[in-house]
Write a structure and sequence with these properties.
Elements (H helix, E strand, L loop, with lengths): L1 H9 L3 H21 L7 E3 L2 E3 L30 E2 L4 H17 L6 H23 L3 H17 L4 H12 L4
Antiparallel strand pairs: 1-2, 2-3
Helix pairs in contact: 3-4, 3-5, 3-6
Length: 171
């Protein structure tokens, strides 16, 4: 009955409710730690990494070996994580913008293609996949693209790399 439901479930003391919520959050955090994900995910200029220092090549990709010293290889590593967020979209588009800007610095187009060219195509694949998530994220991708390419609003890491090269008059 409504009376039984109200007296049994709806009239909980605020302190009891806080204890239950706190207990749930603690158990949830413990569950995440049990999977090892809570403490191992590290933000990177390319997105995020599930296990830094232990690159694992995606065998099906058949491209260069990922290396934790270069963020170009992150996109080809099994530990690479990407979220459909404005932050990660900006990281990818900033990386793409940066790579396109340094193309003229390459000794040869074929040398650039071996690493950066494949990375550019991989970025495009990720961006297309992200755009498919929802119309809302598609709008975010379009807006961030304009901000990066028109206003030069890159993510902080890629902005600093670009600034450094411009200070050296290389771009």
């Amino acid at each position: 009955t409504i009376g039984a439901a109200t007296s049994s479930y709806m009239e909980q003391a605020p302190g009891d409710a806080m204890l239950e919520i706190s207990s749930f959050i603690r158990q949830y955090d413990e569950g995440l730690q049990g999977y090892g994900r809570l403490n191992t995910i590290v933000e990177t200029p390319a997105g995020a990494c599930e296990e830094t220092g232990v690159p694992k090549k995606i065998e099906a990709m058949g491209v260069f070996e990922p290396d934790c010293k270069s963020f170009l290889g992150c996109l080809f590593c099994e530990n690479f994580l990407l979220h459909t967020t404005e932050t990660d979209v900006r990281k990818l588009l900033s990386m793409k913008y940066f790579l396109e800007k340094i193309l003229p610095l390459s000794r040869s187009v074929s040398g650039f293609e071996l690493t950066a060219g494949k990375t550019l195509r991989r970025i495009d694949e990720f961006i297309e996949a992200i755009k498919q998530a929802s119309s809302e994220i598609n709008s975010i991708v379009e807006r961030v693209f304009l901000e990066v390419y028109k206003s030069k609003a890159l993510s902080p890491y890629w902005q600093s790399k670009l600034y450094f090269l411009s200070r050296l008059d290389l771009i």
